[in-house]
Amino acid sequence: MSILVMVVQSWEDESRPPARQGYLALRLLFLDEAARLDARSIATLFELCERLEMQLIIAAPENISPEKGTTYKLVRKVFNNHEHVHVVGLRGFAAPAAGSAAGNGRRLLTMQLTTGG
């Protein structure tokens, strides 16, 4: 883990121009093909993002369910030449942090988008 932290911080320091040294970086980590990762790798990824206060955006199948954060699930269906996209947002199922009033597994957002064909 310490090697990953050092690599990310070094990359961030080197990529920031000298004129912007006082600014904090927007820390986003994008990952596709998360289905290829095993449970230990996924746990390491979540730990890295938590330690460095990074946001993780992954494309993952349903069998990967994060314990923390918010997960948005997009499901596409085509009916009568119309594409429907259902978006559902869920909070992680881990116990809330001390002092937090957030409920586990609470649905945050449900939305349906329809496009014509």
Structure commentary:
By secondary structure, this protein is α+β, with helices and mostly antiparallel strands. The chain has two domains: 20-62, no CATH class; 65-117, no CATH class. The chain is 23% helix and 32% strand. It is built from two helices and five strands; from the N terminus they run H-E-H-E-E-E-E. The protein has helices at 2-15, 39-51; strands at residues 28-31, 55-58, 70-79, 82-91, 107-115. The strands form two sheets. A three-stranded antiparallel sheet has the order 3-4-5, with no helix packed on it. Strands 1-2 form a two-stranded parallel ribbon. Helix 2 (39-51) links the parallel strand 1 (28-31) and strand 2 (55-58). The longest helix is centred in the N-terminal third of the chain and has 14 residues, at 2-15. The N and C termini lie far apart (48 Å). InterPro entries: MukB/SMC. Keywords: Chromosome partition, Cytoplasm, DNA condensation, DNA-binding. It comes from Klebsiella pneumoniae.
Task: Name some characteristics of this structure.
two-stranded parallel ribbon, three-stranded antiparallel beta sheet, chromosome partition, 2 domains, MukB/SMC, alpha+beta, 117 residues, DNA condensation
